[in-house]
TrEMBL record:
It holds the Pfam family CCG. One of its GO terms (cellular component) is cytosol. Coiled coil: none annotated. It comes from Pararcticibacter amylolyticus. GO terms for molecular function: oxidoreductase activity. This is Fe-S oxidoreductase. InterPro entries: Cys_rich_dom. It comes from the Bacteria. Transmembrane segments: none annotated. Residues 3-84, 127-221 form the Cysteine-rich domain.
Length: 247
């Protein structure tokens, strides 16, 4: 298979190490990866702010950049969910519709498509897993705690393959961090309080690192941790899995 690597704009600008880790991890797992250089924003910020009519250029560029690949993989659950549900094209409507089903967040690609069973990995730290809302409720990466159903977590499924890691148990396993894209701008006080509560849960239960599949959530919590002068760090799950495979 050939995979088109989609690196969302905020990952490219603020957390390039997560994008590099995603590329390296996929290549180490035997995947042929191509990075289309003309790619840009998926259009989610405009759509979430009520300006979906302005996302046409982003959609057309995405379709043109990624239509030739077997799969598209990105280290961002929120961007992937937006593309799965809203990608469209006036020039290539049929191509866009088919492409929506071939876009995958990294964790679901590793578990559902590659069906990774062994990583021969090591990360000897206490880690808290943040289940972002888009990944949890949109992509179904984990079971929602309010449902009476067998629990599962695709991120934890991968992390359990890592030797030496200790996944801490949180008091509220799938509570929102409060980021919410533009929500953190228009409802700053509520967003900050939610973030502080989410960070406190991890700290209270002994986390050295907070990981997840959405760097937007991790970025929000990292800002709070820095203001609190905490030693707890945030790290994208790709960085843990890639570092481990490299060893």
């Amino acid at each position: 298979m050939t995979v088109g690597l989609f690196i969302p704009c905020y990952v490219d600008q603020f957390y390039p190490q997560a994008g590099i880790a995603t590329l390296q991890l996929l290549e180490k797992l035997g995947v042929e990866v191509v990075y289309p250089p003309r790619q840009t924003c998926c259009g989610q910020p405009m759509a979430n702010s009520g300006f979906s009519h302005l996302t046409g250029g982003c959609d057309e560029l995405f379709v043109e950049s990624f239509k030739a690949f077997d799969y598209v993989v990105a280290p961002s659950g929120s961007c992937v969910l937006h593309l799965k549900e809203h990608l469209h094209s006036e020039k290539y409507p049929v191509v866009a519709e088919k492409l929506r089903s071939r876009v995958f967040e990294l964790v679901e690609f590793l578990t559902d498509i590659l069906k990774v069973k062994d990583l021969k990995a090591r990360f000897p730290h206490k880690v808290g897993v943040h289940q972002s809302c888009h990944g949890l409720r949109g992509l179904h990466l984990s079971q929602m705690s309010e449902l009476v159903a067998p629990p599962f977590s695709k991120p934890e499924q991968l992390l359990h393959m890592v030797d030496g890691i200790e996944l801490i148990k949180l008091d509220r396993a799938d509570e929102c961090c409060g980021f919410g894209g533009t929500f953190c701008v228009f409802e700053e006080a509520v967003s900050a309080k939610m973030g502080k509560d989410r960070v406190s849960d991890h700290m209270r239960n002994g986390a050295e690192y907070i990981t997840g599949a959405d760097l937007s959530c991790l970025m929000h919590m990292e800002g709070i941790l820095r203001r609190q002068k905490s030693n707890v760090k945030v790290i994208h799950i790709a960085e843990i899995l890639n570092q481990a495979v490299a060893e």
